[in-house]
Amino acid sequence: MTQQGAALQTYNNELVKCIEELCSKREELNRLIQQEEAEKTRLQHDIRLLTDKLSHVNESLAHRLAARADFDRTIAETEAAYMKILESSQTLLSVLKKETGNLTKATEPRSITDH
Length: 115
Known about the structure:
The protein has 1 helix and no strands. The chain is mostly helical and 115 residues long. One of its GO terms (cellular component) is ciliary basal body.
């Protein structure tokens, strides 16, 4: 019976040791879980901040793109109007030169042989 009692004591000691090891592993696992949960919370917070920043950047970008489109439209309209002014100036200059030539001919003294 002593031998059985010793065997029982050995089994008991091993069982206690196994339970202690399991508890120790569980505690380590629990510590890792807490670390990952804390990291998850930090990441979720960072995502919220970045999402807000992205929203603001998108808003700002939309306004700037609209403003640039307005600039492009205004520049194109101004360039087109300027080209019309240049064309009109060229036409006016041509007409003026022609009229100046006609006026010069009209004011030149006529010689008798011109008749």
